Amino acid sequence: MNRGTTNYFFNGESLMCRFVLRLLMTLLVLTFLVSGGWCGERIDPALATFSEGDATAWYDVRLVGVEGQGWTETAAPFDRLPARAEGKVRGDVWGLSRDSAGLCVRFVTDATSLSVKWSLTSASLAMPHMPATGVSGVDLYVKHDGVWHWLACGVPKAQQNTAVLFADIPPGDREYRLYLPLYNGVSEVALGLPPAATLREPDPYPAGHEKPLVFYGTSITQGGCASRPGMVHTAILGRRLDRPVINLGFSGNGRLEAEVAELLAELDAAVFVIDCLPNVGADDVTARTVPLVQILRAARPTTPILLVEDRTYSNAFLIQGSRRHNDASRAAFRAAFERLTNSGVGSLHYLEGEHLLGEDNEGTVDGSHPTDLGFVRQADAFEVALRPILTDDAASQRVK
Fold this sequence. Notes:
Elements: H1 2-34, E1 57-60, H2 91-96, E2 104-109, E3 114-120, H3 132-135, E4 138-144, E5 147-154, E6 160-166, E7 174-179, E8 186-193, E9 199-200, E10 213-217, H4 219-222, H5 233-241, E11 245-249, H6 258-264, E12 271-275, H7 282-299, E13 305-308, H8 320-342, E14 348-351, H9 372-390, E15 398-399
Parallel strand pairs: 10-11, 10-12, 12-13, 13-14, 14-15
Antiparallel strand pairs: 1-8, 2-7, 2-9, 3-6, 3-8, 4-5, 4-7
Helix pairs in contact: 5-9, 6-7, 7-8
């Protein structure tokens, strides 16, 4: 009798829960449809520009917003450091900060075709070991069935470029990400839509995902040598973890510098990822790691910091100089980590570098810079380290 009564009430509660859940889902769907499907503000069509003899409506991407910039007061629209950083950081760092690495444009449109125009700041479109599509191209992803998929790449042909990214797809609102060049700068970028199509700002990130992942590093962080901008590990992680990303990779110049650390400390980050070892020797690692962390910790007492060892050179199994560099810089880095944790610095985490690029030595272009395969493997390793940090569920400060 008691068992029957218990089952009766349990089933009744289940039926009531299902009814309430279905009612809530119906209300959410109706709200979604009535509001046009997306919460993001629609861009006024009057802001579009047109060229003579061309019906394409061109929208400056700044109308929907550029993601990946930590500061608004920049010297040029697509810079990565604030204008006041000029003269504060070394000239090489400042020059590289004008590259648009890591910047992307999130937007929603119902367009059945999409074009893009972008103007590059340098006529050098490619490098000997990195294709023009990665150095100077743009890269489009679309969210399909809740998952980000690559869709098209804008191939650069000159400093002024126009490309059709897709045409004649089924109608319907979709969310897109357009990644900007990794090793070139842009002075303007515009989206080209059919005149009747709508363009909207994206919906906000989910609650708790608003703060960016902030990466400070070297040429690898900047994206060398990804075949296209969406393939650098920082971009892959942004899609996988559904968070904004700020990429402060400076090719050959990620040197654990206090001047850069002071700028980093201005950012309200979800996590700071420090990945500079390829650009510094053991002596500089010893001298600079602790002060950098102390600068960040003074300004951001609780923000997690992930210290990342350098990847293993692909030829280090035979080339002793490569192995010695890895071993010496890692030993100095681990020692600095231990000093910091022993002194009571909290929320400090460590990612070892031995397996960042896999075990088969197939992950680089030149023994150092990752191919797309290497970047995917690196993203896999970073994801394992970052997920528990971001969910406050790290069982240990050391992640192997």
